[in-house]
Amino acid sequence: MRLLGPSKGERRAAIERDHDLVMQLGDSLADFSSDFHHAELTDQHRLVAEDTVHFGDDWIMFPNASYGSWSDADLEAWSAPLKTR
């Protein structure tokens, strides 16, 4: 685990020189790939679709309710009907 130092991409590359990277944990897409860093939302959607195989397998996303790029997004009500058993 490397929490401090150069960018996340550089830290990943340094680890991968001597080790197999088997799992990544993060609270933002950029925690998993440098491709997500500063990518526009439409590009993020495309990249997520391309990397779907990783999510829940070797990329584990944790929610972060404290801060993140989501905090600037417009809040839209969820209108799906409630399903009960």
Low-pLDDT stretches are none
Number of helices, where a helix is a run of at least 4 consecutive DSSP H or I residues = 2
- What is the 3D form? globular
Tally the beta strands: 2
Instruction: Calculate Rg over CA atoms.
Output: 16 Å
What string, H for helix and E for strand, traces the elements in order?
HEHE
Going across the biggest sheet, name each strand in turn: 1-2
Strand content: 5-15%
Helix content: 10-25%
Mean pLDDT: 87
Alpha-beta classification: alpha+beta
Distance between the termini: 43 Å
* Largest β-sheet summary: 2 strands, parallel
Q: What would you note in describing this structure?
A:
This protein has 85 residues and is of the alpha+beta class. It has a domain at 23-64. Helices cover 25% and strands 7% of the residues. The chain has two helices and two strands, in the order αβαβ. The chain has a two-stranded parallel ribbon. The termini are far apart.
Write the layout of secondary structure elements.
Elements: H1 8-18, E1 24-26, H2 41-50, E2 59-61
Parallel strand pairs: 1-2
Condensed summary:
Helix content is 25%, strand content 7%. The chain has 85 residues and is an alpha+beta fold.
Overview features:
85 residues; alpha+beta; two-stranded parallel sheet; 2 helices; 25% helix; globular
